[in-house]
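Readers of this paper often ask what the protein records in our data store actually look like. Nothing more is needed to write down the fold, since each code stands for a local backbone conformation. Below, we set out a record of this kind in full and without editing:
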Amino acid sequence: MTEAAQDSALIDRFLEMMAAEAGAAANTLAAYRTDLHGASTLLGGGLGTADDAALARLAEGWAPLARATVARKAAALRRFYAFLQDEGLRADDPSPALPRPAAARPLPKILSHADIARLFEEAERGTAPLDIRMLALIELLYGSGLRATELVSLPLKAVSHDRPFLILRGKGGRERLVPISDRARGAVSAWSKLVPGDSPWLFPSGKSHLSRVRLYQLVRALAGRAGIPPERISPHVLRHAFATHLLEGGADLRALQAMLGHADIATTQIYTHVDSRRLVELVNSRHPLADRKPRVDAGGEGA
């Protein structure tokens, strides 16, 4: 068996474990497969038996890539080598030789309340069927913070007029409860009356549902008509606006984490940068000791 074939067999065993024991989603498994086979190809085979020198060559091959991409690939290999060691397929773990690029998490793009108002003013102008659909899409993006994929793939009956929430299955197959505002339910109700009754999707398109790419195009076109530079907006930017503006309004970070479907609170904490001044003011005004004057000694210095 060639080294490439041996690598392929080991990767298959690793992915079987990830699916069966870790419950990894299909997209996660596909990403691991791509990264591991890509690393094997760069090494000319022998990924399963690679030593420190081989992994150093691999890091050199990754040099032109973005830091986030290198971090993802290295994380996949670390898990792969941990599996090989746990299974007794190799005695050592060479992963410390892999690069650990500092991952600078970018701050999300921000839309102001005025931007959102202009966007909705434009979305509410039209009365044609596609205008009604656009308003329903925007209401759900900004009003509930849905991911683009979650939104376009909503079933026809996902939003009910008498239920102020919907249950979504998001990243990693995790379910979460998402509140739906009265405005959003009204917009969806108006649109659903125009959807063919035999459609399984709330936003059908052809033989399937609206695509993420088409949603992106629609949102940018709406922004352009509203006088907002299209490059500043996307479905994900509207999700950021949902989170940012809720936090500004006093939302609890844990509640926001649940609504956004973040597995890790650290992901949600990125939004706190937009509201640091309010948080400082909150501590200074609401803390139990806020009204208590500091004790000063005879020398005039604080105790």
